[in-house]
Amino acid sequence: MNFEFLLSVFTDYTLRNVALGSALLGITGGVIGAFAVLRRQSLLGDALSHAALPGICFAFLLSGGKLPLWLLLGGGLTAWLAALAMITVLRFTRLSEDAALGTMLASFFGFGIALLTFIQNGGNANQSGLDKFLFGQAATIVASDVTLMAVLAALALGTVVLLFKEFKLVSFDPAYAATLGLPAPLVGTLLTSLAVVAVMIGLQSVGVVLMAAMLVAPAVAARQWTDHLGKMLFLSAGFGGASGVSGALLSAAVTNLPTGPVVIVAISVIMILSLLFAPLRGLLWARISHARRDKSLREQQRAPKLGQLHDRAVPHER
Question: How many other CB atoms are there within 10 angstroms of residue 95's CB atom?
Fold first, then answer.
């Protein structure tokens, strides 16, 4: 990429909007997803993003058009309803969390596919392109869409800043949070609602199928580098934002490369490199550290034996 191409990020209208939208998605998804990963709810993003599809379809049927605001609100509404249904199932049944998440994912996504097929066969000319919400249509992002994404991102990130201590307690020790009088279930529901907001930001960029990766991969990558929650949030946001911008630039530089999937590939590469080379938890780094410890232990065990051999070889003075 030459300097002129990099400069086009600021001068080219379409590329600027796509890069900003992808960056906002990466930053917000990275921060919110970090809490989901720490709470062992990595499948939550997958369930919520897939549950957004029927809401998008209902919004189209009710409005008769593809105005992004209504489609995102519809997707966010059904994703939030799926989250509430999951929480209710977990609270009043013996179903495990992964089973509840899988059930909601399959049920809502299946309903959404049925609605999408009904719309496509209904003869409405406005439905063209609606199926692109499955994998994203970042190239269609305009300035008003970026503004909407920025408002949603500010809402989500501002809530994290205001309630950081409460979110931290609920993520690491919900039982202790309850003993302090903190309404842990309510705080957990709020965190889930913020995940819905992150999904709304990503629907147009990466779509319902790929959105889960933007909630999980940045947080998993950041977790390999630090044990400190604050640093993890900053790293996760940085990884997500970097993958969004790099994915947008790469898709613009190479013909016929869709932005959404390229963004996912970029964050996946960051995650794999972190899993391998991060000095705290990286697999390769762990092997090197383990080899060094073994070598040091062998040397320590060898030292007394060498001393004994030396004593035998050198006669004692009388």
Answer: 14
Is residue 149 within 8 Å of residue 21, measured between CB atoms?
yes
107 part of a folded domain: yes
Contacts of 152 (CB under 8 A, 6+ apart): 28, 197, 200, 201
pLDDT in tens, 270-283: 999 999 988 877 78
Whether 31 and 231 have beta carbons less than 8 Å apart is answered as: no
More confident residue, 132 or 314: 132
Helix (H, G, I), strand (E, B) or coil at 166: helix
What global pTM score does this model have? 0.84
CATH number of the domain that residue 129 is part of? 1.10.3470.10
CA dihedral 35, 36, 41, 43 (to 10 degrees): -160
Q: Could you tell me which of 61, 162, 164, 176 has the C-alpha nearest to residue 120?
A: 61
Per-residue DSSP letter, 266: H
